[in-house]
Structure formats: C-alpha cells, structure tokens
Amino acid sequence: MARLQLKNLVKTYPNGFEAVHGINLDVEDGEFMVLVGPSGCAKSTTLRMVAGLESVSAGEVTIGDRVVNTLTPGNRGIAMVFQNYALYPHMKVKNNLSFGLRLAGRPKAEIHDATLDVARILEIEPLLERLPKELSGGQAQRVALGRALIKKPDVFLFDEPLSNLDAKLRASMRVRITDLHKRLKDEGRPATVIYVTHDQTEAMTMGDRICVMKDGHIMQVADPVTLYERPDNAFVAGFIGMPEMNLVPGTLSSDGAMTLKLGNQTLSIGSDLASRLEGGFSDVTYGVRPQHLSLVDAGTADALTGVVRTLEFMGHEVNLHVEIEGHSFIAVIPGEQFDSSKGVGSKVGLKPHEQRVHIFDKESGRNISLNESK
Asked: 312-324, pLDDT tens digit by residue?
C-alpha cells in the first residue's frame, strides 16, 4: 500500500467555477480515510481527481513517492468501487473478479489462485458460477469489492458504494468493509482507503479519520471521537451527530458571573466552561447536543424553559422537540427516564450538561470553547 497526499489541490471548471479550493490532506499508509459532507461539497470531485477521472487544475496528487497528476487511471495504482457496481452482465462472477488480471496477461495459475483467495476473503465462493443478474444487491457489491481487491492496488477509492442498498444491508456491508480492512492489516497487507459518503453514520462507524468538507473546503480532519466531542466550528458540530447539535444564537455577558442570554432567558455559564472561553466575543452561537440535555421541571435553576411541540418515541429513548424563545431544541431522553406527564403542549425545563456545551463565534463559526480549563 502507499501514503496518499493532496497538496494545494484545486479544481476549476471552464466556466470559472472553482469546486475545490486548494485543499491539503495526508492519508497514511493503511489508513481508512472517509470524506464526508453535504451534497455539492466536492468530495466526489476530489476522489475523481485522485483517480484520474477529473483533471487537476492546480496542486498535486501524490501516491507513494509519485506525483500522479498526468498519469492515466490505470497507471496510478488505484482501484475504484462505484455505487452502481459496474459488473459485466455477460460474465460469471469468477470472470468479473479476474478480468483485470486477465487483461494484464497474468499467468492462469496466478489468476486462479487470486480469484479463489479473494472469494474466500469476501465469502462469495458459492457465487463464482453465477451471473450478475442472479445476485442480490449485497452480493453484487461484494463482487465489485473483490474486483478491486484482486488488483492489490496502492489505494482503494470508494464512491458512495452503499447508497443503492436498503438500510439493513447498508449496516451489514459497513461491518463487512471495515472488518475486511482490519483483516488485511492483520494479514500484513494493509489497505489504504479513501471512502466518500454523505452518510455521517457510515463516516463515524467506518473511518480511522474523517475529513469533513463544505463547498470545496476542508472544515476539519480528525478521528470520530474528536469530531463529535471537539468540533472546530459550528458547521462540523451541526453536521456530525444524530440528532444534530442544537445551535442557537445568544449573547455572552460577564457582568459579575458569566452568563448567556437566549431571548428573554438567561443561562449561567459554569466556571469550567467560562475558564475555557476565549475573550473578546459577545455575539455567539450556543451549542449543545441533544444527548447532553436533561429533562427537568420548568423554572429549574440553570435550565431553559420551553414548550414540548413534538414527541418521538423510539423505544429505548424519546426525542423531545421543545420550543424555547422561538428556537427549536431537541433533547434525547432515555426511555426509562421519560416522564409521560411531560408530553406535547407541556412546559418543561432542559438543563445542559455544563462540561459538554460549546460556544462558537457567531461571525466565523469557530469554536471558542476548545481551550483547556485555565
């Protein structure tokens, strides 16, 4: 496998539209890197530049010790798995798997052994004599994965490979792909992977690290825990996590004790959070995840009071949608802790977990509460 580097990578189309704005990204040898972001953020465009399917307007794509900007896709040492599988319909599975090796003129014995090895790893030995039309979606995706794996490329590229599968099968294939990545590493043949998805669940459960993108810019690169607990900015905070983080405008005041004003309500800022805040900011965005709000009685000190507008019973938990000062808050309450008297239309209090609150600069979106306690 090989290390992949993107250096000041730019993509500008003939009409002048700049889709990718000078991004820099290092993917270590054997790392599983996920590119995630909303539709139109240029994650697939970035992947296609790595693959050689899109030209690079400026900057460099380096795989191993080679700058590959001018190389054809076939000479870059990459293998790509698409969302539409792209299997040859007239070929049996075994021939779909071995097609690249046969095209390269490899010996028959090597092709036979490699095909059986890949089929064993992906548990598709019983499918080798079938045609693609006889496969389920999950089986076809495993064959497409095997066709990439058999080439033993320097870098694997995945472009939303699970988007055509139903929810249950997507969950199963997530586990299969991440398990395969770990197994290859354990066998001494680590796979360097770039995986593009718009699904943050895939990103959080599959990636060693995640690159969050927006409008052709990289917003943050970190492991899943860091992205969730220490988002660099309001965009990452709102994009990562389900349900998404509550983000509402507020005003900081340090008249005596530090407080946050949300509409007509004032919330005390605890000493731990206050000690982490950078100074010089007044207009801010207050952020707290739904899982970090406790349900309390209306009017409770250090809590925000509002009215329950919607209740989603999920079995093990309840999602409460509470209107507070014209803003909608979501609170995730464990099912066994939910008080059924606090239903739709009732007044409730939501108390934030002080150490899990984030404060963002309203103008730049930067997280100004990431400092260590002073």
From this structure: 988 889 999 999 9
Residues 6+ apart with CB under 8 A from 109: none
Output the pTM of the full model. 0.90
Rounded to an integer, the average pLDDT of 267-273 is: 84
Confidence label for 374 from pLDDT (cuts 50, 70 and 90): very low
Interatomic CA distance for residues 29 and 374, integer angstroms: 38
Q: Say how far apart CA 266 and CA 252 lie, in whole Å.
A: 10
Query: Distance between CA atoms of 72 and 213, rounded to whole angstroms?
Result: 26
Q: At which of 201, 234, 267 does a domain end? A: 234
Gap between the Cα atoms of 142 and 197, Å rounded = 18
Neighbours of 253 (CB within 10 A): 14
Domain span at 259: 246-361
**Residue 251 sits in a domain of what CATH number?**
2.40.50.140
Count of CA atoms in the C-beta half-sphere (13 A) of 321: 10
Question: Sign (positive/negative) of CA torsion 259, 278, 36, 181?
Answer: negative
Name the amino acid, one letter, at 88.
Y
Check whether residue 192 and residue 257 sit in a common domain.
no
Q: Is 161 or 256 the better-scoring residue by pLDDT?
A: 161
In terms of Cβ atoms closer than 10 Å to its own Cβ (0-12, 13-18, 19+), residue 58 is middle
Q: In terms of Cα–Cα distance, which of 13, 12, 78 is closest to 50?
A: 78
Q: Are residues 179 and 304 in the same domain?
A: no
Strands (E) located in the chain: 4-12, 18-27, 32-36, 58-63, 66-67, 78-81, 155-159, 192-197, 209-214, 217-222, 246-253, 259-262, 265-268, 283-288, 293-296, 304-313, 317-324, 327-334, 347-352, 358-361
Q: Which of 164-168, 339-343, 366-370 has the lowest mean pLDDT?
A: 339-343
Stronger pLDDT, 187 or 18, i.e. the higher one: 18
At 160-179, the pLDDT tens digits run 988 888 888 888 889 888 98
Q: Are 1 and 77 in contact (CB under 8 A)?
A: no
Residue with tokens 């009732």: 346
**Domain CATH number, residue 228:** 3.40.50.300
Of 205, 234, 263, at which residue does a domain stop?
234
